[in-house]
User: What shape does this take?
Amino acid sequence: MKKALTLATVALGSALALTGVAHAEPNGDPAKYADFTADFVPANDPSALSAKAQGKNLIMSPYGVNRTIACRGNGADVPVYDCMQEDDLGWITLRIIDVPGVGPTWTYLP
Assistant: This one.
């Protein structure tokens, strides 16, 4: 399990390095990871309640949006999925949880 996680982290790092961690564009390859950090709002931010209406995703993480958030999808014709956030040890998979009254929230759960 640890080896698989390490390999996945290396693969993600390589993929992000090759893409330059550029923000995904509507015509980008939805199967590749891209930097979606700008499309996230921290759950404790005052604008969190209106994030969904503004087309933003919520993130509940100790890093907020201060660390890169990479996802697959393009946000246009392919919804964002399979998101990860950079942390002190590499990358951690974010889990999506439906929070009543707020909507889907990407959550950092180590």
User: Anything to note?
Assistant: Residues 3-12, 14-27 have pLDDT under 50 and may be disordered. The helical segments are 2-19.
